[in-house]
Amino acid sequence: MLIGLFLSSLGVSFSIKAGLGATPVGVCPAVFSPYFKISTGMGMAILLGLFFLTQIVILKREFKPSYFMQLAVTVIYGLFVDLTANIVTIFPEGIFWAQILYCGLGIVTLGLGVFTMLKANFLMLPQDALVKVISVRYNKEYGKVKIVFDSLLTVIAAIGSWVLYQKFIQVGIGTIVAAIFVGKIISGLKEFKGLNHFLDRIIIKSGQLVKYEGIVNMELPKMISLLYRKMNMELNERLMKIGLSNAQSRLLKLLYINGGMTQAALCEELGMDKSTVAKVLIPLIKNDFVTKTVNPEDARSFLVFPTQKAIEMIPKTLEIISGWTKDVTSGITEYEKELFYKMLHKVTQQAVAICKNSKYKDGCAYQ
Length: 367
Known about the structure:
It is built from 15 helices and 3 strands. It is mostly helical. The protein folds into 3 domains: 217 residues, no CATH class; 112 residues, Arc Repressor Mutant, subunit A (Orthogonal Bundle), CATH 1.10.10; 33 residues. Strand 2 and strand 3 form a beta hairpin. Helix 6 packs across helix 7.
């Protein structure tokens, strides 16, 4: 968290140092602070306070008391801005190429700082929290909202600079480039597996995730249950168009992959008891999706086979399920999806192992 704050403030200070135009988050303080004779850090703290109030207006009853911690972060960030402003004075006042270098460093460092704070997912600066609130509330990608938000700040600073000084102060090509590319850098960093893995390890080792342990213990069963119920409801509705339910499509997929299976094997693989599997099979047999024949290895049991009608239906069911998966994971990067699937698979395997050691062993299989 503090690393992200420091990197972000360093990016602001580098952009001001460049003289080609401050980054959008720093351009308003850079323009208005000299006029009101306050430090850039103080101006930044005031601006962040306004962003904090805007969150309250948007969230209304959804605003949580814990969000007031953003005010403490605001004070720290303001101090960091003044600190890094002094640090960058050790760099020489450069020619045009040096200005370009400082500007580029400012943009990249700011993007990395914001990305680091987003990864921590603990406390964000009010301006980044506001962008996240807007992106979540209106279902927009964070990076795109960031670009629009930064562009708006740039316009406000440009108007203020012209009104107060009759010229553009700290509003220039660097501001425009930052408004366009900081959001793109944040979006791009999400796809770097090495960086994401490195930051995840730092966050875990820092003990920051321990703060959520109590919440996870209470919410994990609830979230898994809610996800399953909502998935089942939605897939049942979508699959109904081709005359199937979610449970029936799962059973048909198993038969398609494995060929003939006994009812006991279906129970094991589907994680269902015998009566539930029997209920799923009845309409499938009636509608000519499956057939039952006596098991040649054990006359007391039957083998269930998919019919040609079922085999022809499989691509449609997979397309529907794939569509739901795509919808429910929209806005998640490929790296996040891969990490999520691996973790979910591991948790599920552990849950199955625990279940098999309990007295409730029926329906403990996992495919």
